[in-house]
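Translate sequence into structure tokens.
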Amino acid sequence: MMILLMGTEDDPQIIAIADALKQQGNSFLIFDSGLYPTQHRLSYRPMDGSMQLQIGEHCLAQNDIHSLYWRTLIPTRTAQENPIALRDSASLLRSFLHSLGKKSKNTAEAVNFHQEKPRQLAQVAQLGIRIPETYVGNDPRAVRAFCARHNEVIFKPVTGGDYAQIVNQAHLTDEHLQSSLNQSPVTLQAYIEGTNIRSYVVGDEIFSAEIRSTAKDFRTDEDAELIPFNIPQEIAQQAKAICGALGLEWSGIDWRRTPKGNYIFLEANPSPMFVNFEKHTQLPITRHLAQLLMA
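Result follows.
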């Protein structure tokens, strides 16, 4: 049976896992999502739920696939230029992921949680785990009221994928609110003073590091310092509970640790980047992720 790595061939995460699988003598194929549908072929028969994936000379049914590492979907330029083609290609690919069930690391259902961040936050809050004070919506009055209740507020897209920014008075003018909120809702969160913590959960293992940065969003800081350490047992249990509730077999969880030592959950990513983190911390994430795929 074959291990499938889905993402672009030049993605550092794909390259790292491929190298780890090679060292273990495991068979794998790279399903370059950037070459679908122009080169890779995918067929589905709703009558019996069978699917077939063709990558070059390799033709795989669901039973031929041992596991799948899901990195990202990068549609071809042709698909990007045609909205109907993009939706159709993505729809069939999502059906393919669903057909693999738990062979996919992570499952299509877990990916859905990540794409619906308000629901993800609500699910984690129901576990009794602290999350930031949050507003998601497009009501100008509610936006102003939320900002008035907090000293500092950050805003970011509802689906994520962009850097968090601090709300200023220019953002709260009638003209700006009308223009932006008529286009889409926004996520607002009370800014939490403290330190960023990233935890990778891979099966039963947890690898964490403190991210030392003076930036409001550490991802904008090229000089951010990563210091590996063990999170408290209580927080480790919370990390595993989060993964269980969100259907994640592995994840990158972001926390904010307050000056009093409280951990605030920010996000759980079902397919985070890890190569740079591993490079700076020497934590064996790739090896354990490869073992998860081989299990």
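Note: The mean pLDDT is 92.
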